[in-house]
Each structure stands twice: as structure tokens, then as C-alpha cells.
Amino acid sequence: MKEVDKMLECKRLTGGYSGDPILKDISFQVGEGELFGILGPNGSGKTTLLKMISGILPIKEGSILLNKSPLSQYSTKELAKMVAVLSQHSSQAFSYTVKETVSLGRYAHQNGWFQSWIEEDEEIVQRVMFQTGVASFEKKPIQELSGGERQRVFLAQALAQEPAVLLLDEPTNHLDLSYQKELLDLLKQWTKEKGLTVISIFHDLNLASLYCDRLLLLDNGSININEVPNDVLRKEKIKEVFGTDVERQYHPKEPVPQMVLLPGWKMPVTTEVHSIDIHPSMLQFTKSHIALQAPLPLRTMSSGVVGAGTGWHQTFVNRHVDKDYHCDDFRSDMLDFLKNHQFDPSTTVGMMTAVILEDVSYRFIEDDGYSVLVVVTAGVGNAVDASMSDSHKFELVPGTINTWIFVNGELTEEAFIQSIMIATEAKVKVMEHEQVMDPVTGTVATGTSTDSILVASTQKGEKLEFAGSITPLGKSISKGVYECTRESVQKSRKRFKS
């Protein structure tokens, strides 16, 4: 960090309360306009560090520089102009109104024995009350407010100080979900637009990851790591410091990690693992759809009309529609179909196909410690050579080659992706061997324009790390997909010719 960017710097900080120091040799810097998060288990020194930065607790060894000047050089009033504090348990001894409470934040800016209230003070108080959502009850006594409302009032009071640095001790502790987001969005906006430096303690690792520029992880009074969220929030490090099992995944909209707790309990399984395996006997065939209802939720990755992406699903439906099917809102239409057939859309992966469902093909392949069920419906009416797809017009039509792959075993993330890759490779080989041609380009097709795929795993039994072409699982999937796709294509072609 450049010298001009530093707003706060702690150098070899040691101290705390009487007796043995709680913090030991703490050194870090926070830049102007940065939202800086402090993490750590209970007793790690988070609140002690915040109190030392605010000047409440003395420094035993080391130093704190605020805007390049030692903290000790600031008078109480000068420090109040520079630093505002919002503690976890803010309280109010007197029954002030909301506006009166917020107005106390202007005290450090008043001059003389007879404090003067000027237009600028009023404008600032009104603005921060509006920004924190408390203006609508500004005349209400603060003791009549809920814990969340009070927290927002005290935040408004802190912002009314117009500080350079805002210190927060678990600011979202009493807030419901919507106000947590609004508060942190507001703080992030102030750091970007006003250059406010925010230093905040977080217990929620995921909120810290989503909003903080950097994270300081404390462990037993010492710094474990001080880095960007992507480096701090690693499952091995979180387990080391917090002593609990977590898994890491990425936020669906922002490039930041999110930590998921792994509970100590397991879904009760009263029978042998293999008795809950997905098996061909679970397939249900009607003229309108093929369905499979699993005995437990399966981890899924799919491109279905419903249930796309990754998730956990228990019901799987491949719906037949006419070749000339057209619907402006096909997802809503699919949802209605599922509901009308007593399927719960929230736990279902649903696909559409124009293929006659009697032409389905499936294989059950067993190997050491795992098994695979592959189900394919395939027709080639809208075959496309993907390498020459620019020759085609974009048109939404019902799916033609729909592939289901159920794995009785535990797949890693890598294995899920490799399963889709190997299945696609096997399908492309069928196109070549069956000489399925792209009618527009006259070249061998690689699939159809609306193929869909599902990989679903019980996540029970054998752990399967890889599904590449030379792995046992990869061989099972490629064999099943190749044989089922080829057989289903042949059935469809035979029907079409007859």
C-alpha cells in the first residue's frame, strides 16, 4: 500500500486488559476508502483490537498511526472528528428521540460553551437518517424501538460525525436479512464515493467475503492471515482457526468465496447404501413423460428447462412435446406441466423432447464400488455441426437428444464436469458412426441444437474423484452414453422411415 493511501497503521501492537496481553505483535495497514474486515473465533482479540484503535484501551507496546499521526497526539474531540464507533451493544440511558440521538453525532463539530446548531448540521442529520432508513420515525423515543431499529439509529449517529474512519463491532448482529444488505450496501457506497475507511468485526464469514476488500483473521491474539477474501476463506484455514468443517463454493453473482457449514448429523439411512441406489426399476414410462423419483435427494448438474445449474433434486422428468411445439414462456409451461402431474417443481429437473418416448434407451452399468444408470432419448431432426453453427439461425425448439446420467457414488466437482465432457464426446462419436448430417452445412453433425444433459449423484458410497476417458467411471459413462444414444438414434430413424 502506498504511503499516501494509508489511513490507519498498527505497528507491532501488543496489549489489552490488565495481566497478560490479549493481542501480541499485531501489524497491519488499512487504506483510505477500504472496507476492512476482522474475523476470528470468540476470545481471539477482535473487540480488544477495535477498542485499542478507538483509544478506549491503552497500548502496552507498539503504536497506532491515524492519518500518519500517532493516536496519542489526538485530543478526545479531535479523535471524535476522525473516528466514529458503533459497538455491538449500543445503549441509550436517556429516552431521547431518534433525531436527538442522531444529532449527538454532531457534538464533535460544535464550538464554544454554547453549542450552535447550523443549517449544515441539520442537513447532515436529515441525510444520514434517510440513508439508514430511520427518518420515518425520527420523533419516536429510541427506547421504544426494536434492536434492529436502534442499531440503525446508532449507525446514523456515527455517520453524522462525518468521520474518516468508522469502527463497527458486528454491525449486522440485530438486523434482519434485508437491513443487513441495506446497511452493508450503504457502507460500501460510502467507502467508494466518500472515501470513508470502514473497519468492522464480522462473525458472518460470507457477509465479510461479499463486502470486504481485505480480511484480517485473528487466532488467539495473533494474526493468522491478512489478505483478500479469496486467500483468507479457504476451508483448511477456517477449520484450523475455528475448529469446524466447512466447504467452499463461489457466490453465484460475485467472484468471492462463500463458506458452507458441514453439519455433524447425516441424513438417516436405515438400510444398506446399495438399497437406495438409483436403478432402472425406478423409471416410470407414460405417453407424456418419462420420470424417475429417487429415494433421496441427488446432487445434480444439468441444463434442464427446470432445475438447471447445480443443486439437489429428487425427481427427474423428460416430457414429450410435439415437433411443432411453441410457447412464449416455455419454463412456465413446464412448471404447470409438473404441477398438473403432481411433481414438486422445487425438487425436479425437467426437460422437454420431441422424440417419441417409446424410443428411449437405457443401460445400467455396475463396477467395483459404484454403478451408473444412463437414460437417453435421441432424434436427429435438428442436427447441427457445432463447428459450423454460424450457418444456422437461432431458433428455440424442443430438445432432441436428452441424456440422463445417474451415478451411485460420491462425485467431486471435477468428476461432475468430466462426466459431462465424456458424455458429450461419446455422443459426438455416435453422430460420426451413424453419419448424422447437418442439413444446412452438409457436414457430420456433433449433436442437435437443443441437446440437454443431467448428471445426478447419490453422493453415497465410493468416492469418485475423476471421470476422464481412461478412468473407470469415465469408461462406464462413455459406454452407456454411446450405446444408448446410438440405439435411440437408430430407433428414431427406423420410426421416421416407416
Descriptive account of the structure:
The chain is built from twelve helices and 24 strands. By secondary structure, it is α/β, with parallel strands linked by helices. The protein has two domains: 3-261, Rossmann fold (3-Layer(aba) Sandwich), CATH 3.40.50; 280-497, 4-Layer Sandwich (L-amino peptidase D-ALA esterase/amidase), CATH 3.60.70. Strands 13, 14, 15, 16, 17, 18, 20 and 23 form an eight-stranded mixed β-sheet that branches. The chain has a six-stranded mixed β-sheet with strand order 6-7-8-3-9-10, sandwiched between helices. Strand 4 and strand 5 form a beta hairpin. Helix 4 runs antiparallel to helix 5 and helix 11 (413-433) packs parallel to helix 12. The model has no long low-confidence stretch (mean pLDDT 91).
Topology:
Layout: E1 6-15, E2 23-31, E3 35-39, H1 46-54, E4 59-66, E5 69-70, H2 76-82, E6 83-86, H3 98-103, H4 119-131, H5 147-160, E7 165-169, H6 177-193, E8 197-201, H7 205-211, E9 214-219, E10 222-227, H8 229-232, H9 235-242, E11 246-250, E12 257-261, E13 283-285, E14 289-302, E15 309-320, H10 330-340, E16 348-353, E17 361-367, E18 370-377, E19 383-384, E20 402-408, E21 410-411, H11 413-433, E22 447-448, E23 452-457, E24 463-464, H12 472-497
Parallel strand pairs: 3-8, 3-9, 6-7, 7-8, 15-16, 20-23, 21-24
Antiparallel strand pairs: 1-2, 1-4, 4-5, 9-10, 11-12, 13-14, 14-15, 14-23, 17-18, 18-20, 19-22
Helix pairs in contact: 4-5, 11-12
